[in-house]
Amino acid sequence: MNNENLYVTLKAGFPADAAAPALETADAVRYTYGDLDRASARFAGVITNLGLRPGDRVVVQVEKSPEALFLYLACLRAGVVFVPLNTAYQRAELAYFLGDAQPSLVVCRPAAEEAMRAIAGEAGVAHVLTLGEAGDGSLADAARSRPEDFATVSRAGDDLAAILYTSGTTGRSKGAMLTHDNLASNARTLVAYWGFRHGDVLLHALPIFHAHGLFVACHCALLNGSPMLWLPRFDVDAVMKLLPRATVFMGVPTFYTRLLEQPDFGRDTIPAMRLFISGSAPLLAETHREFEARTGHAILERYGMTETVMLTSNPLDAARRAGTVGFPLPGVAVRIADGEGRALPNGEIGHVQVRGPNVFPGYWRMPEKTREEFTADGFFRTGDLGKIDERGYVVLVGRSKDLIITGGYNVYPKEIESYIDEIAGVKESAVIGLPHRDFGEAVAAVIVPEPGAALHDADVIGTLKGELANFKVPKQVFFLDELPRNAMGKVQKNLLRDRFAGAGA
């Protein structure tokens, strides 16, 4: 039987020359593909020496470092299930994750060891090791005595490779189970669709506890045998310094707005660049247009989820349309359905449903929730609202939980936001629904003004009344210095609804 372990798939793309560069840190420390293979072998040896068996879970909450990537690859090689956690999670959240995932090993930052041992003890976790941002810690110490070769454990394509917990904004977090084949099939598709080639260099400034930075970015580079310029986090000065050496850059919208704020960012900064990719949160059409005018590059926006990795993408060699997330990827089926599950024609807004080899099999230890989220014919209900336009591009209009129903009318926040964002002096906006005694919900807008702009709620409302049906016009407008966002740049509308809930009529 063929070994369908994801590491075997990725390694098939490594350069023939083991001395080829794989990673370069901000401090110019360089690792070759041979280093990567040997280090992941040593880490895998530590894992198996602890007695972990294929299918056991390893929970990891560490800072981004080359060693953190080696640990992920080691978990693949050992056949255990990698469970990365956001470094911002605190005690109560960690207790839930450890109780739910039931790991055999937890790897944490050295400074967090004492607290983590207490939580792990309560959850019955057998082992706790540490891994620091500088490659220090008990895991790294143990790895030094392990052999530099390791026979990658044989796995079937439908065996679990990772569990990623969703953000839990509408209830307790759910563990999305991703298989070796889910991840391998998506990586192969993206490398081909985005035209990865010999000589590509990826500038990596994303976190690696999330599907975007860990699966999309890393897998593309590794499967293509490309070097990664490895930054611990997005720092605009560090990115500006490294951009001249990169050919591919993946980011969230905030990365692009920060670059545009740099007066010396432009065509001369990116002589080798061939592709900018954006995801994890909607990219404003204005940012798309300004970026192209400044650089000559149209940002390629795509769409994915923790449960599915990538689903759609604007094309590499055709029009990348602002405000859309492109076409379904090869092998992925996307349909728009009404509330009863009936397929809708192009142009009509409904619920986005997807099916493909990249779509996860379900939620960890939640069989009933899994059944709820899949249709009888195997489509996953994404929870997103959208449409497919006349040219076949997928357009997202928001999350179904963000849909506003006011006086019996459906209001899609993204439509209103697109009008608000065009008003002079508006930097960005978020439209939410607030409780209203007459309408059920009232449309409200939260606006971040441009620095120095004098915006007033009456002016905003007056402008929109000339553009939109009255039921879509916000009844209230609030101003903030910034919108609350999660680690991947998504606006947390649930926090806005909570904050302004008492302001509804």
Structure description:
The protein is built from 15 helices and 25 strands. It is an alpha/beta fold and 505 residues long. Helix 4 (91-101) crosses helix 5 and helix 7 crosses helix 8. It is globular and about 70 Å long. The N and C termini lie far apart (65 Å).
The total strand number stands at 25
Helix proportion range: 25-40%
The first-to-last residue Cα distance is 65 Å
Proportion of β residues?
Answer: 15-25%
Largest sheet: 9 strands, mixed
Question: Roughly what is the average pLDDT, rounded to an integer?
Answer: 95
Number of helical stretches of at least 4 residues? 15
Indicate the radius of gyration in whole angstroms. Answer: 23 Å
Q: Which overall shape is indicated by the principal axes computed on the Cα atoms?
A: globular
Low-pLDDT residue spans: none
The structure class reads alpha/beta
Read across the widest sheet, the strand sequence of neighbours is 2-1-10-9-11-12-13-14-15
Salient structural properties:
24% strand, 9-stranded mixed beta sheet, 505 residues, single chain, 4-stranded parallel beta sheet, alpha/beta
